[in-house]
Design brief:
It comes from Streptomyces lunalinharesii. By secondary structure, the protein is mainly beta. The protein has a single domain, classed as Pectate Lyase C-like (3 Solenoid), CATH 2.160.20. Helix content is 3%, strand content 36%. It has a 21-stranded mixed sheet that branches. An eleven-stranded parallel sheet has the order 5-8-10-12-15-18-21-24-27-30-32. The radius of gyration is 21 Å and the shape is globular. About 3% of the residues have low confidence.
């Protein structure tokens, strides 16, 4: 029997799935009330909680009803396993949905996909490191939450928000992402917060492509990938160019781990990469032990990086702390540094020659430095299995989660420089 809870449902509608008292919300238990997660989700109304008992579930779950909470009773014990037979573990196409406290693994594309794109939700395209949705108009899914999720050994992205706005990705762990652990793409303004996550043993820890405006990446541990973090412009997606992200208070270290999937562009040993992104703020990050460079600014073939500010970061033990390089005719402008703890830049003395603020018309100098050849990668299916991760508090007794229409956005001034121990208790790769 469904557990009935009387209260106010969230979201924006939902289909008629049976008669119940007005304003009632229920907890639908798997397998007690429905034999599969998909069957339970199909029964849910806005405001309901689908609570999943421990077990391995071989299904791809589609959440198309607004305001539903999908939650595992045990983060490590509830496993949605694609067995490399399906593109996605969980696909969210309705607003106000929360996905919490479970593990998704072994999908050919994504562990969790949150999207307003019908083409992306269908699972194709996506085989070449992203979604080129052709002539499909940009349609945003508005409001989502992904929290306390473990996403490992997925063939594209662990947690992927594409053509989505007004969301939060938090307290999650990603590894074995053949492209990246966490990815936010094609949103403007995003109003998305990525916070307090661990991304390790991925090709890239976090990637933001054409993700612009109120895009916050704060307090994350991006350690032991091939590349820690990128923010970039890419013609494969709409809403060019990438602009206006805040990347603050992250630990970005030791990103030259060999037992990882190869990065598509061959990058290796880079903490932060900016490729044609503009007006981004890199504030109070701890960037350490990245063998090629701590932070690299470059251009796409035709999109310059303009007005990026590198402020109050701490750089230690990188091949080069900050390097600007423009191998094509496209050159950066107005990029600047202020108040960083650093030891080496290319070109030399950037802290003196390019101090913040600078006019957007000010040309950015460029240089080159020796870069190591990336070693071969491993299949994403061979990446090390993660250890136990923190549980969602009171998963079995807390009701559905109300997802706000717009999340509270961080105050950049309140984000501190992280300690070297940030979230280390739940990581496999250490910084030294």
């Amino acid at each position: 029997m469904l557990t009935l809870v009387v209260g106010c449902g969230g979201g924006e509608g939902g289909s008629d799935k049976g008669t119940r008292p007005s304003g009632a919300r229920v907890t639908i238990r798997v397998p007690g009330d429905a034999p599969t997660i998909s069957a339970a989700v199909s029964l849910a109304h806005s405001g309901d909680l689908v609570l999943v008992a421990p077990g391995v579930y071989h299904e791809s779950v589609q959440v198309a009803t607004p305001g539903v909470t999908l939650r595992g009773a045990s983060r490590d014990g509830v496993v949605i396993d694609g067995r490399l037979r399906q593109p996605n573990g969980v696909v969210v196409t309705a607003p106000g949905v929360a996905v919490q406290n479970l593990t998704v693994r072994n999908n050919t594309q994504n562990g969790i996909l949150v999207t307003g794109s019908a083409k992306a939700a269908a699972g194709l395209p996506g085989g070449n490191g992203g979604y080129d949705t052709g002539s499909e108009p940009v349609t945003f899914l508005k409001s989502f939450l992904v929290s306390y999720v473990t996403a490992t050994r997925n063939g594209l992205y662990g947690i992927y928000a594409f053509s989505a706005q007004n969301g939060v990705i938090e307290h999650s762990y990603t590894s074995g992402g053949a492209d990246s652990g966490i990815y936010v793409g094609q949103c403007k303004p995003c109003r998305i917060v990525v916070r307090d996550n661990i991304a390790e043993l991925n090709a890239v820890g976090y990637e933001g492509t054409n993700a612009s405006g109120d895009m916050y990446v704060v307090g994350n541990r991006l350690v032991g990938n091939r590349v820690g973090l990128t923010t970039n412009s890419d013609h494969q997606e709409k809403l060019l160019p990438q602009q206006g992200a805040v990347l603050a208070g992250n630990l970005i270290a030791a990103n030259q781990q060999q037992a990882t999937p190869a990065q598509a562009d061959g990058a290796w040993g880079i903490g932060i990469g900016v490729d044609g992104g503009s007006d981004n703020q890199f504030v109070r990050n701890r960037i350490a032990g990245n063998s090629t460079a701590g932070l690299v600014i470059t251009a796409t073939t035709d999109i310059p990086p303009v007005g990026n500010e590198v402020v109050a970061n701490t750089f230690t033990g990188n091949g080069v702390d900050v390097g600007w390089t423009f191998p094509t005719a496209t050159r950066g402008r107005g990029n600047c540094l202020r108040g960083n703890d650093l030891r080496s830049t290319v070109p030399a003395a950037l802290a003196t020659t390019a101090p913040c603020p600078l006019p957007a018309t000010s040309p950015s100098p460029a240089g080159t430095w020796p870069t190591p050849t990336a070693p071969g990668g491993i299949p994403f299916t061979d990446v090390a299995v993660p250890g136990p991760q923190p549980q969602f508090p009171h998963a079995g007794t807390t009701g559905a989660t109300a997802v706000p229409a717009v999340p509270a956005l961080p105050e950049t001034a309140d984000v501190p420089l992280p300690p070297t121990s940030l979230l280390a208790a739940h990581a496999r790769v250490q910084t030294s």
